[in-house]
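Pilot study result, target chain (511 residues):
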Amino acid sequence: MAVGGFDNPNNGDPNKDYPGAITFYVLVTCIIAAMGGLIFGYDIGISGGVTSMAPFLQKFFPSVYRKEALDESTNQYCKFDSVKLTMFTSSLYLAALVASFVASWVTKKLGRKISMFIGGLVFLAGAIINAAAQNIAMLIIGRIFLGIGVGFANQAVPLYLSEMAPYKLRGSLNVVFQLCITIGILIANVVNYLTSKMEGGYGWRVSLGGAAVPALFIVVSSLFLPNTPNSMLEKNQPEKARAMLKRIRGVSDKEIEAEFKDILAASEASKAVKHPWRNIKNRQYRPQLIMSILIPFFQQFTGINVIMFYAPQLFKTIGFGDNASLLSALITGGINVLATIVSIYGTNKWGRRFLFLEGGIQMFTFQVLVTVFIGWKFGVSGDVTDLPKWYAGLVVFFICVYVAAFAWSWGPLGWLVPSEIFPLEIRSAAQSITVSVNMFFTFIVAQLFLTMLCHMKFGLFIFFAFFVLLMTLFVYFFLPETKNIPIEEMTCVWKSHWFWRRFMPEDRPQI
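Predicted structure:
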């Protein structure tokens, strides 16, 4: 038996084969839905660039501006250490955390597409407020609106994709959500690079207001997206659900019968559960509950958002100039997009576990190298007068290889795996936990990173490398492979796992 894998494939029915292939209709709807990731990605990329623009800092954070631009004696590690500055970035994620609990109810009762619509609408309002901001209060209020939008979108989109996609292509289509996040980050980096050159000091308003474009797209497109068959059944629409399943699978009534019966059985079990938040604590759901907490926790403690939030400040800290730091962030954003495309192919070809493990080893290796090189030049004092071009280029290369590893492993799989392992009766509640844990630790990392950089110096990268090592071991021992398992048959992976089988009742029906 392979550790973390199957030892008895006949326990449950992991080999059940539903007919149907990828149809043009389901491809288009999944791609459009996945573009909900654009708003999350754009925000991740835009905030770091804006907070490196001098006019923005002068207007809202003059003390940081003076420390960064005027005080040449300041330790390089501590130039951006400001509670107010990090609150600007991290307030969004606190709002998303709270919103995800409301979004859980909306997603279950009203459907996945309604959650996407609400998310896009509220995000649009936040973008307008931020672009018109006159003081820090307006900035924070705008960020809170953006956070509510992200909470709703991140709750609905992964579930939508997992339920619409044919099970053999569920991984690839779900990874498109992460691809859209990375595209959003790249677009934000391009916008920041261009607006930083605008005269008059208004470039930051264009950057922040640009978030309205993907938000408007989500609002409009969600009006035309169909509900998933699972969502239709939750709303007591069995005939519509059957017709939708037939359309998205592209097969006959007879051929969809087996899959429809399984979805219907899952829906009936879901309706029998009146209190999913209470039931999710039951012993039989222990594996899914633990995964819904630990996977998003580990995803944030890879340290990736340190790079994506604060890439311009980070590159300025290690000696790059203003434009060079934004350009370097643009490069890492491009690598992020390209590497995510690898995951679209690899999730169904090589499996989730392989990508998790390979990505973890690669991230750990290059985080250690970044630590060594930054420590070598900056030491603990943070004082440096001259950085050779070869050195700066090598550090950027190390960071790019690290970003690539995340982009084809923990980036997409951190959203994919939780969305596909939950039975329907607890699916919305469990996804809400995944989103809220993700947002909570995103908030913690965003809020504390610049202070930690100031105090831990180059050792901060070792801090994250430790968690990468820990999460890689966790995946090796405790995460079963979910490739090619129908979403309503996922119970089999826990019943077949060397550790999790003890939590699964022998007489529990497959739903």
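One observation from the pilot: Residues 1-12 have pLDDT under 50 and may be disordered. A full batch analysis is planned for the follow-on phase.
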